[in-house]
Specification:
- This protein has two helices and two strands.
- It is α+β, with helices and mostly antiparallel strands and 100 residues long.
- The protein has a two-stranded antiparallel sheet with strand order 1-2.
- It is rod-shaped, with a radius of gyration of 34 Å.
- The protein starts with 46 loop residues before the first strand and ends in a 5-residue tail after the last strand.
């Protein structure tokens, strides 16, 4: 028999941690966005209109005002329009309130 001392493992502790993460289940989440804020500071009575293919400011003005007062729409949208003849489908234009 040998007089070698056996290792003392009495203070050894262990822990197990998993690297696997539980992924959250978002399958029943629904989304809805609403806002009470008007688009780009639109004044009371203003509406918006989404430009469609074939539209021009005169046509849009005639629809909303009954006359081709396109300059009012152009002026209200100078933040996104630099040329009244260059509107694009999908653009959302502010339509100022009708002046009666």
């Amino acid at each position: 028999m040998s007089n070698e001392k056996k290792p003392d493992f009495s203070d050894v502790q262990s822990a197990v941690q998993s690297t696997e993460q539980v992924k959250p289940d978002f399958s029943d989440v629904q989304s809805k966005v609403t806002s009470t804020e008007t688009i780009a500071g639109a004044a009371a009575g203003e509406q918006t209109y989404t430009v469609e293919r074939g539209d021009n400011l005169s046509k849009i003005a005639k629809h909303f005002y009954g006359k081709q007062d396109w300059k009012r729409i152009f002026d209200a949208n100078r933040d996104q329009l630099s040329d009244p003849d260059r509107i694009q489908p999908g653009q959302v234009l502010k339509i100022p309130a009708r002046e009666d």
